[in-house]
Amino acid sequence: MTTEVRVPALGESVTEATIATWFKKPGDRVEVDEMLCELETDKVTVEVPSPTAGILAEIVAAEGETVGPDALLAQISEGGEAEKPAAKPAKAEAPAYKTEDKTTMSGNSVDVMVPSLGESVTEATVATWFKKAGDRVEADEMLCELETDKVSVEVPSPAAGVLAEILAEEGATVDAKARLAVITEGAEGTAAPAKPSDAQETVLENAGPEEMTPRTDVEDAPSAKKAMAEKGVSRDQVQGSGRDGRVMKEDVAKANAPKPPAAAAPRAPSAAGDADREERVKMTRLRQTIARRLKDAQNTAAMLTTYNEADMSGVMGLRNEYKDAFEKKHKVKLGFMSFFVKACCHALKEVPEVNAEIDGTDVVYKNFVHMGVAVGTPSGLVVPVVRDADQKSFAEIEKEIGALGLKGRDGKLSMAEMQGGTFTISNGGVYGSLMSSPILNPPQSGILGMHKIQERPVVVGGQIVIRPMMYLALSYDHRVVDGKGAVTFLVRVKEALEDPRRLLMDL
Question: Per-residue pLDDT tens for 158-175?
């Protein structure tokens, strides 16, 4: 089946465009929404994505041609297989691989693609390859591990055969639809690294330390040239991500993006000789993303925190009275988290703006509660989500929190299990925190901080008594939540915890 690629909508006042650059050539494999070419009009530059996956069978309009609206640009054969040319080394330190003559490579070639990363994740970093080119692999055997800003993703082999070629080396950043490697089905053998051609060796030998890549004469995207001129960025300051090192528009934006001061240069040791006693470890992708998102939350939201305290006698008494019967019937222990989740769901009904989020100039109110529960793991903080927590029983909440917490500690949480939260609870009390100001989990507008339960003297009915007390902290986005709403929310949580019967009576 053949699919036509036509000129997209150019605007009512635009009657023609010029083919500026083709990023693919006939015979290349293309994926859905992968950029095929770039058009230039008298007003804007227009990118043309692929409408389907398949093989670029024919280019109808070559570079430099002028075309009108809806003109035919190319033909794509759906479901075809491209003839893969011999791999060229992308960098001197990461050569391509080829198999020795004794390897049988007559089977079908199977692409190893980036697996599903989740709807909000657009890229990943190749963390570790467990196989090398030429190794024999079995179906479903783990080939490599990717790191995203939320979880680590294992990539299994889609077929049995030989890992013929690795396309994305360790440390490379790949998008959600990228090819990672090629497997030749049914092949047998070992691999030897391919040597660069004589011409490539000459270029690499003469290159400076900052230019250890094969040089080719490529034309950068017109939109990239324009962006470089506008931003005052020179060509050698930009790392091209397009075919053959072609600079794309987004590469210019990355090159021009401001960097945090801490990343500008390594910190000098505080005193002579201290460097030998220091250990420098590169931040994981997860930790980098945690740092960026937390700082973004501070920079974006008008974040404010209000405090209160709750007498936990009521919850502790109810829990002690029913914990054995609860565990016997539901096969799960009755903890404190289910009380807090139910108390927050109850309060969110009265103060719905705490359960809302800002989208541009709109406030989106959620008529459901997807409760995020922050979990500390060896690799960093993750926030799995208990969906429709307002519709679940105490037992259902306890079971789900227990299962999600175990997955989080084992690094087995899926992307779907960490997306879509509308409100978050963070329990710093398990680490001994007496009081803190939790940071919002964007785009949410509220997060409740739990803390350590500590016996303190309080006045009850004119008498000083000892009670188990907990400080509560609500951080909220003042752009959508007023002070009155925030205080009211926290008071309702306090009341529900101090008298859990209010939850049953919906008071």
Answer: 988 899 889 988 888 888
The half-sphere exposure of 141 on its side-chain side, counting CA atoms within 13 A, is 15
Geometric angle at alpha carbon 478, from 476 and 482, rounded to 5°: 95
- In contact, 101 and 192? CB cutoff 8 Å: no
State pLDDT tens for residues 178-200: 899 999 887 665 444 444 444 34
* Beta carbons within 10 angstroms of residue 146's beta carbon: 23
| Residues with catalytic roles | 478, 482
Domain boundaries along the sequence of the chain: 2-78, 97-193, 216-256, 288-505
308: left (phi over 0), alpha (psi -120 to 50) or beta: beta
CB atoms within 10 A of CB 446: 30
Class level of CATH domain 97-193? mainly beta
Give the up-direction half-sphere exposure of residue 231: CA atoms within 13 A in the CB hemisphere. 21
Residue 399 to residue 381: CA distance in whole angstroms: 20
Which is it for the CA torsion 8, 11, 12, 15, positive or negative?
A: negative
- Torsion sign (Cα): 411, 416, 419, 423: negative
| Coil, strand or helix at 140 | coil
Q: According to the 3-state scheme, what is the secondary structure of 293-339?
A: HHHHHHHHCCEEEEEEEEECHHHHHHHHHHHHHHHHHHCCCCCCHHH
Q: What is the CATH number of domain 2-78?
A: 2.40.50.100
Biggest distance spanned by C-alpha atoms of the chain: 92
